[in-house]
UniProtKB/TrEMBL annotation:
Protein's name according to its UniProt entry: Disease resistance TIR-NBS-LRR class protein
UniProt-listed SUPFAM superfamilies: L domain-like, P-loop containing nucleoside triphosphate hydrolases
PANTHER family per UniProt: ADP-RIBOSYL CYCLASE_CYCLIC ADP-RIBOSE HYDROLASE (PTHR11017:SF574), LEUCINE-RICH REPEAT-CONTAINING PROTEIN (PTHR11017)
Recorded superkingdom: Eukaryota
Residue ranges occupied by any Disease resistance protein Roq1-like winged-helix domain in the UniProt entry: 75-152
Alphabetized InterPro entries for the sequence: Apaf_helical, Disease_R_plants, Leu-rich_rpt, Leu-rich_rpt_typical-subtyp, LRR_dom_sf, P-loop_NTPase, RPS4B/Roq1-like_LRR, WHD_ROQ1-like
Domain Disease resistance protein RPS4B/Roq1-like leucine-rich repeats: 441-512
Bilayer-crossing regions: none
GO biological process annotation, one example: defense response
Amino acid sequence: MEYSLYPPTTDHTGLSREVVDYVKGNPLALKVMGSSFRRCKNKQEWEVQWKKVKQFPNEEIDQVLRISYDGLGKHEKEIFLDIACFHNGYERYYVKELLDSRDFYGEAGINDLIDSSLISISKGVRLGMQSDEQIDMHDLVQEMGRAIARKQRIEKRTRLFISEDVYQVLINNQRALPVQAISVDWYEIENLHLKDANFEKMYQLRWLRVGYYHHQSGISSIYKYPLIVSLDFPNSLRCLDWYRYPLKSLPSKFSAQNLVVLSLRDSKVEGQLWNEDQGPVNLKWICLSQCEDLTEVPNLSRSLKIERINLNGCQSLVEIPSYFQHLGKLTYLNLRDCTDLKCLPEMPCNLEFLDLSETAIEELPSSVWSHEKISHLDIENCKHLKSLPSNSCELKLSGSFSLEGCESLHEFWELPKKTNAIVLYNCKNLVSLPTYIWKLKYLERLSLFNCSNFQHFPEISEAMEHLKFIKLSGTAVKEVPPSIGNLVALRKFDLNNCKNLEVVPDGLFCLTSLQELNLSWTKIKSIPASIKQAAQLSCLRLSNCKSLESLPELPPFLRYLEAHRCTSLKTVSSSSTAITQGWGEYIFSRGFMRNIYFLVAQSWIKMHEAT
């Protein structure tokens, strides 16, 4: 049983055992019924509730679960039925908006259902949503809710979610119906040879979700969109969610003024969705993701309530209107994979989420850099981005800042002050870093992997107490600055494939925290004797250092040495401190690669041949 924070009193213990026996230990029934008993303030109320349960001695478990439903208020029942019929598995924030569009108190209702154990909240996984909280309703509870919703005759139902039911309503569309919400897979309707989608007589319809999902392989692309001849919506519609919407615009007779949510993902729309007098003044969310024919953003200049705009994958879109900067309630803008988008206007002041990855932008608006509210900014794989704004960076971003794949980037100045990781993979035009990066006191990781023209690693002007990992592999660095000693927390330093690197500074091995060092594929000829002082160094990689001529005495706690194809190596440590003390056997005995043992032996032979 669910007792909140307290176990049952002695008076309630006997009743609790009866309830557990009655539901035969079913965990879901116990959880739901525990919530209903939790509302009981004394033993008498417990007994009344228990009598309700025992009214269904021979019924299925859903009759037991229904007790919690019967205890809900009128609005909470409506919210429960909406979730059971339509919203199970969707994001909490999204469901709240849909419920609000139906004049329900979405957030309060969701909390009541959680308290009644009719729904739960889990972590969602859908990309780019406002919240990662997801509504979950157990299958048995959902089945009960759907059964309640279908009890009435079809012409009196307010919710339709079975394709055949929707089909029956549409073919008999002769009079007004009380239906308020519909969810349907149009592919199933289309198989019944229905090509008319006239919803206009459903004067109370507030919410419409249409999918188009066929699961057969090898179907011609001509069937990607529904084959619809006529289409009309009632002006009462507040949420229109149509996956693969088949037309280029909304119906001319439809007034979008009541729309709050509009989602036309992967659809054929091209630009002007509505006439000027159809402007959706109440619109809060619009999603036109993967609309590959969309050449311009539909006119949202009058949609001053807009909060979220998702244009992800609109690959024909070339510009964003300048009025966007005046959309004062806009918090979310997703332009990912708008591959023809080259320039942006200034951004509105309340923006929190901005995704520009894989666009063709050449520069960021300066306003982006000065926004204090942006908590998510993605500019990966912007291959034409040449520089970042030069004004002071006021972004409050924390965590990793990635410029991966920004091949044209050649300079930047400031970054968000709380950045803890900088990722600069494949920035092939980047030559140097600004010394400002040493002002980033939270920085833990710095990666310039495959920045093939990067040459100048800046002098480290002050101690970096948190920087633990640096990856310069595949860069053109020629030297590591002597000030490397200021990287007092450095644990892993990767210089693999730095083919211009010839010298390793002594100061590197004064770092008492250094644990891993990769110098493979470099031009180094020797390693400073000071390496012996690197007491924490446990892994050293030197493979393909074909100019390496000597290997000094190594630190005592080294556990892994990799030195394939060091073809110029002539001397290894010294006879008194290495070979005679069994260093080669030590490596071999720890399970190291066999070639290391032979390398030591061969080097010993070379030294004796030279004498």
